[in-house]
TrEMBL record:
Residues 24-91 form the HTH gntR-type domain. PANTHER family: HTH-TYPE TRANSCRIPTIONAL REPRESSOR RSPR, TRANSCRIPTIONAL REGULATOR, GNTR FAMILY. One of its GO terms (molecular function) is DNA binding. SMART domains: FCD, HTH_GNTR. This is GntR family transcriptional regulator. Keywords: DNA-binding, Transcription, Transcription regulation. The keyword 4Fe-4S does not apply.
Length: 239
């Protein structure tokens, strides 16, 4: 088990340890397992996936795998092509832009709430994630870094008293997550850490204007990163 998975489990971030420590067996577990592989680009955009091969890999029948494929297709993460098979969907630029716009609007409001509340425990939890991110700067640490990045933003929602809002955002940002895993392999992760620290410093000072501005700048970074990633790997994207 990777260290970041252990940390996440200990911090109570709703990690299903059965998926991490044992092969998935139910349709729901298989869906979570495949979704994770898609979002980390372990299964890259455009890759063909086979019910038969995956069922054989984990030693189960094809039916729960088929159900998981259907859910991935409903999420826009897989595409069933008649007579050809099932393929991992390409990253939708339109879906990324829409989800980013919604996320900026929601998290900017959460940021203003937290700047007014300044909850000591919540701010400390966000700082703990920044400290963890500093340990995840190596080439093999991308998944751990992105998980800690997500926990930083989840802690913001928790500190504002709206954890359920983050859960809603998580369902929206499947396409963003794939792009983030690609960008974190290319761009300096220290820049993201610095942005997180700037947000947190403003929150700690109770400066809602500066905190909101820092959050908006942070969430708009993807607008600069995506064209470069798309140019380098155009086969991964669709409009």
């Amino acid at each position: 088990m990777e260290v970041c998975h252990i940390i996440s489990a200990l911090q109570g971030d709703h990690v299903d340890q059965a998926i991490i420590t044992t092969p998935p067996t139910t349709a729901s577990q298989i869906y979570d397992w495949l979704r994770r592989r898609v979002q980390t680009t372990d299964l890259p955009p455009g890759a063909r996936i086979s019910e038969t091969e995956i069922a054989a890999e984990i030693g189960i029948s094809r039916q729960p795998v088929r159900e998981a494929f259907i859910r991935l297709a409903a999420d826009g993460l897989a595409e069933v092509k008649p007579q050809r098979g099932t393929y991992i969907g390409k990253i939708s630029v339109g879906a990324v832009l829409s989800a980013r716009l919604i996320r900026e609007a929601v998290e900017s409001d959460l940021t203003k709430m937290v700047a007014q509340l300044r909850p000591k425990d919540g701010l400390a939890a966000m700082q703990a994630q920044i400290d963890l991110q500093k340990q995840y700067l190596g080439p093999d640490d991308v998944e751990c870094f992105v998980e800690s990045d997500d926990r930083f933003h989840r802690q913001l929602a928790i500190a504002a008293g709206h954890e359920a809002v983050w859960n809603d955002l998580e369902r929206l940002k499947a396409q963003i997550n794939r792009l983030r895993h690609l960008s974190m392999r290319v761009f300096d992760r220290q820049h993201t850490i610095d942005q997180h620290q700037l947000i947190l410093n403003a929150l700690t000072a109770g400066d809602s204007y500066a905190a909101e501005a820092a959050m908006r700048a942070h969430l708009r970074q993807i607008l600069d990163d995506m064209p470069q990633i798309r140019q380098a790997q155009p086969e991964f994207f669709t409009d």
